């Protein structure tokens, strides 16, 4: 309700100003519409960033239903659905957006992103192919790399990842994706370097830390890496490393790492306890 009061106050101010300066009715109407438009834009930004994701979806569904000809409201609905992790529904809305005569290449890239999230790789590839090669954005190259990964086109994948990294000041996420691509190919040392780079850019990216442990474990390197981590994170990473050791056949090392994980965790670490009990029922009561 507060934003409605804001509009009322601003409208009142605009009307008062017109009385003082002799503005025409048309000028006053334009000023009022500018205020309303600005207020709506601010509210939309809030809904797309800090508002509860499901509340944002409900808000934009209402707005798009009330004004079905507005492509910007359809875009915001699709984005809010992605934020709320409703990928399949987002695909449906993005399809409507890209069918609009006013659709942009950015819309097609966002549609491809939604298709990938929904597991529709071939459709995503076809959509990206419809975007002119002159459109060189970080998101476009990141998605191209992911599609190349899905096709096991490793040379194209590496090229796209490298280009994407060069187009952003926050490459941690794409470095992590690139590292996971290397990990899936069995290139563990290259994967390890990429995960370390990702952590340097974002020390809070736990996914990259966990993937780093997987890459080291695959090389039978069971030493914990020197990276920033909380006590809980250390326990979880020790657990991952323990499972990697067991998978490699190094069961005794795995048991030791599980015991360390249990001792490190500030609370009861049920998953580690169960795993240790499965390896040696006598070890944990």
From TrEMBL:
Pfam families: TPR_16, TPR_19. The keyword Cytoplasm does not apply. InterPro entries: TPR-like_helical_dom_sf, TPR_rpt. PROSITE patterns: PROKAR_LIPOPROTEIN, TPR. Keywords: TPR repeat. TPR repeats lie at residues 172-205. This is Flp pilus assembly protein TadD.
